[in-house]
Specification:
Helix content is 71%, strand content 0%. The protein is an all-alpha fold. The termini are far apart.
């Protein structure tokens, strides 16, 4: 499970709200470990994540544009990498079925999703705090 901690806060209500929603989506899948419908939950989780991440990235990039965030191009490139990773998982597990959907794959996806979100927030999103967080 991903625990929401202060170091994940950016200080912008839209971005923080989106991040909390992404944490909730991933945590629903994390909580499914060992359930009979775990594979179905993974499929639904990935579908939700892909759709929600697209909207989140668009909102976050708009906020960065408005704030004239100087590292926006690099950030947009990172968003593209994350989307390629997510869609690659979907492709290999559910479309091509080139990777077996077994316990090992489920464990790998769990680990990847946890790191995917928290690493991105901590390594990239926190850098924009001073630019996008409303002044107090």
């Amino acid at each position: 499970m991903i625990e929401w901690t202060e170091d994940l806060c950016i200080g912008h209500p839209v971005i923080d709200g989106d991040h909390r929603k992404l944490v909730d989506i991933i945590n629903l899948f994390m909580a499914s470990e060992g359930r009979l419908d775990e594979r179905v939950i993974l499929s639904n989780t990935l579908r939700l994540l892909v759709e929600y991440a697209k909207g989140h990235f668009a909102r976050e990039e708009q906020i960065q544009r408005e704030a004239m965030y100087p590292y926006m191009e690099m950030h947009v490139a990172e968003h593209k990498v994350l989307m390629v990773q997510l869609t690659g998982i979907v492709q290999s597990l559910f479309i091509e079925k080139s990777k077996p959907l077994d316990k090992r794959a489920l464990s790998e996806v769990r680990s990847l999703l946890k790191c995917w979100l928290t690493d991105h927030i901590r390594k990239f999103d926190t850098n924009m705090r001073d630019w996008v967080a409303p002044s107090k």
